[in-house]
Design brief:
single chain; mainly alpha
């Protein structure tokens, strides 16, 4: 049989395999969902029934994902500005691009140079391509750990989570999820160099990428029965994990004169450090019931973050008990870092700001939810509530609203 025919058959078999077909189907359906939400959301929320004119809103569909109406586009605009201008600048209010890590804007910049498309269009392409890769890796990881049925539910649940719109938008969620899941996929197979390489890219995407060192150390020690250590590929892989962070710090030292600028710039976003991990939740409850008026804008945001964050905190405990130890180590590290840095400076009204978005990358929790989905009531309830909130949040976002 000719070699090209063998290759074509191998490709067809690969494309027809469950670990490609199911993630692809989830990806296509949810991308279509966001396109429809954008089309009808922008048009119906920006027109009037009795208006004298009814202009076309086609030119506003793509910019809607950069939120041009409000505050310069939130995080998306930061990444687009970094892709175009680098890091040696500040905004008038004192906020600095050094709070944002470089890999995602570098990919945007490279995509613009290659494809000659707009920065926002390229950012969306990068995000959605990365999300597809993340779904494929996640399906394979969960199928290997728990089984294909749970893998199918896990990929579906994460794709329709209420804040999953950030996997479509120009944010780092898709890229970071891809890199962390890929690192775990190879880590659990003791493919140390691949795991470390993906971990290094993750630490160039977000500072929390460096947390992958902890499950790496655990898994490597477990592979050696928590006894002997010697220089080998495992230790080399471990060293690769913080490489992205170290490279960014070296770049900041050379360009802005402060290797730790990414931590110092957090003060402009009202972030503080506290060893009292419950303080963010406690202050959120105080803001909700004591400070803000009933049914207020900030009250709604606190309710979202308390509700989603609280659920994920509880689910993280059960996921850590249900899944192999490396996942529990990763979850514990995430919560330790996240809860020790609430936004509480100057009486900020939403102490757990963005927590409902940050939990998107906690794929071990979604693995646990995939297991819970064996119960029909949980499965149906999750899909109804999650998809309904996702539609609401998406409409809010494309119309310039703040939902994180």
């Amino acid at each position: 049989m000719p070699l090209d025919r063998l290759s074509a058959q191998a490709i067809r078999r690969r494309l027809a395999s469950p670990d490609f077909m199911h993630p692809a189907w989830v990806w296509v359906l949810t991308r279509a969902f966001f396109v429809l939400m954008t089309y009808f959301g922008v048009i119906l929320f920006n027109n009037a029934l009795h208006s004298a004119t009814h202009p076309s809103f086609f030119h506003q569909l793509l910019p809607a994902w950069n939120n041009p109406i409000s505050h310069g586009g939130w995080d998306t605009q930061w990444y687009l500005d970094i892709a175009q201008r680098g890091y040696n600048w500040k905004r008038a209010v004192g906020t600095s691009p050094t709070a944002f890590f470089p890999l995602y804007p570098m990919l945007i910049r490279a995509g613009v140079l290659v494809a000659h498309r707009s920065y926002i269009g390229t950012a969306l392409i990068v995000s959605n391509a990365c999300f597809f890769g993340a779904l494929v890796y996640l399906w394979r990881l969960v199928a290997w750990e728990v089984g294909e049925t749970v893998a199918a539910r896990t990929t579906l649940y994460i794709a329709v989570f209420p804040t999953a719109l950030f996997f479509f938008a120009g944010y780092t969620e898709s890229l970071f999820l891809l890199l962390t899941v890929a690192s775990f996929y190879h880590l659990r197979r003791h493919e140390w160099i691949a795991a470390g390489s993906f971990g290094g890219l993750a630490s160039a995407t977000r500072v929390t990428g460096v947390l992958l060192m902890l499950p790496f150390i655990y898994e490597y020690a477990r592979s050696r029965d928590f006894a002997s250590w010697k220089p080998d590929r495992g230790l080399l892989g471990l060293i690769l994990v913080p490489a992205g962070l170290v490279a960014f710090m070296a770049y900041l030292a050379a360009t802005v004169g402060d290797a730790w600028a990414f931590t110092h710039s957090q003060e402009a976003w009202q972030k503080i450090f506290t060893p009292w991990l419950w303080q963010g939740f406690a202050e959120s409850f105080r803001q909700l019931f004591d400070v803000q008026p009933a049914a207020s804008f900030f009250g709604a945001h606190n309710l979202i973050n308390i509700g989603i964050g609280g659920l994920f905190l509880v689910w993280s405990f059960f996921a850590a008990r249900k899944l192999p130890g490396a996942y529990g180590v990763y979850l514990g590290a995430f919560w330790l870092v996240t809860l020790s840095s609430p936004a509480m400076a100057n009486g900020y009204p939403v102490p757990l700001i963005s927590l409902s978005r940050y939990v998107l990358i906690l794929f071990p929790v979604f693995m646990y939810l995939g297991i819970l989905g064996e119960r029909e009531r949980f499965h149906n309830g999750y899909l109804v509530i999650a998809t309904g909130l996702l539609a609401l949040f998406t409409l809010q976002f494309v119309n310039g609203g703040w939902i994180i």
